[in-house]
Amino acid sequence: MKKETGKKVRLLCRVFFAGYILLLIYLMFFSEEWGRSILGGDYRYNLVPFREIRRYLKYRGTIGSWRVFLNLAGNVVGFMPFGALLPALKEKAAGFWRTALFSLELSLFIELSQLVLQAGSCDVDDLMLNTLGGCLGYALHRLVVSGGKHEKEKN
């Protein structure tokens, strides 16, 4: 990729990344449609790994498969843009482990903020699913980048 094109792509990724972070903050703390409110309400937290995942799977008949899918896949898919965009922000891309660590750190910050602010619910399962999403986003980034390199080699 030409140096000038690379700068434009990084700038565009920074704009998308900033928008993504703002959307994430809104959805995690302020979206009443997702049961979020800093003004109080019914508050729950889970610090036992896999407890909520098992509960959702066990009661999927009662709560509905769609809601189970939205919760579990939503936590993974919701962090995929983070993992895909983070390596594209700088000229020297972040590697897998750095992206995984930053995904874990951002998710931990969100979950601890939800615990302190009692907005949404603090859930260790969300931490694991979000980190997985960041890792899958990184894999998607690598697939796109390596796919572009293969196309360039063919020409």
UniProtKB/TrEMBL annotation:
Residues 17-143 form the VanZ-like domain. The chain crosses the membrane at residues 12-30, 68-89. Keywords: Membrane, Transmembrane, Transmembrane helix. It comes from the Bacteria. It holds the Pfam family VanZ. This is VanZ family protein. It comes from Hominiventricola aquisgranensis.
